[in-house]
């Protein structure tokens, strides 16, 4: 039986998030706070922030998404790279890359804080869209949409909300995580882009 890396990540994230939600000092130490990163070189926050969440609803949504999509991307990466370590590195890079724009934007703001695995989760979802754009995605687990349509809506809304600002949701992390999920596999396997375009232009062959 092959060990699921996604399941291991889910267990680790749930344990760290649960303990942090019981101890807000720990939550504060692990979250992304760009001002502290800049002033005290606390670069570890780029990664640890992806293993803590604002509340149990935030945690549940991200981990359910990882559960449904992570196993598929693991299998895709096993075929593409023949190495499980690549998936681990991809997940951690997804967290880091998604946090970089927030760091640049808020590095002089001592009140800004961000947390959650949304950057890596968005990367996984958009890699899945790249590989199979006509798969069905259920928005809020109810509204059925083709993956590529969901992706276009997601990117558009995230870009708009990121420019608008306000609220507690880090839309920049969603957007940059999604872009990372598209670019990372294309760097190593550009043929995925050709396959994606073929599937887009020949929808009838892939939609039943």
TrEMBL record:
<feature type="domain" description="Peptidase S54 rhomboid">
    <location>
        <begin position="41"/>
        <end position="189"/>
    </location>
</feature>
<keyword id="KW-0472">Membrane</keyword>
<dbReference type="GO" id="GO:0016020">
    <property type="term" value="C:membrane"/>
</dbReference>
<keyword id="KW-0645">Protease</keyword>
<protein>
    <submittedName>
        <fullName>Membrane associated rhomboid family serine protease</fullName>
    </submittedName>
</protein>
<dbReference type="GO" id="GO:0006508">
    <property type="term" value="P:proteolysis"/>
</dbReference>
<feature type="transmembrane region" description="Helical">
    <location>
        <begin position="138"/>
        <end position="161"/>
    </location>
</feature>
<keyword id="KW-0378">Hydrolase</keyword>
<feature type="transmembrane region" description="Helical">
    <location>
        <begin position="110"/>
        <end position="131"/>
    </location>
</feature>
<dbReference type="GO" id="GO:0004252">
    <property type="term" value="F:serine-type endopeptidase activity"/>
</dbReference>
<feature type="transmembrane region" description="Helical">
    <location>
        <begin position="59"/>
        <end position="78"/>
    </location>
</feature>
<keyword id="KW-0812">Transmembrane</keyword>
<keyword id="KW-0997">Cell inner membrane</keyword>
<keyword id="KW-1133">Transmembrane helix</keyword>
<dbReference type="Pfam" id="PF01694">
    <property type="entry name" value="Rhomboid"/>
</dbReference>
<feature type="transmembrane region" description="Helical">
    <location>
        <begin position="85"/>
        <end position="104"/>
    </location>
</feature>
<feature type="transmembrane region" description="Helical">
    <location>
        <begin position="173"/>
        <end position="198"/>
    </location>
</feature>
<keyword id="KW-1003">Cell membrane</keyword>
<dbReference type="InterPro" id="IPR022764">
    <property type="entry name" value="Peptidase_S54_rhomboid_dom"/>
</dbReference>
<dbReference type="InterPro" id="IPR035952">
    <property type="entry name" value="Rhomboid-like_sf"/>
</dbReference>
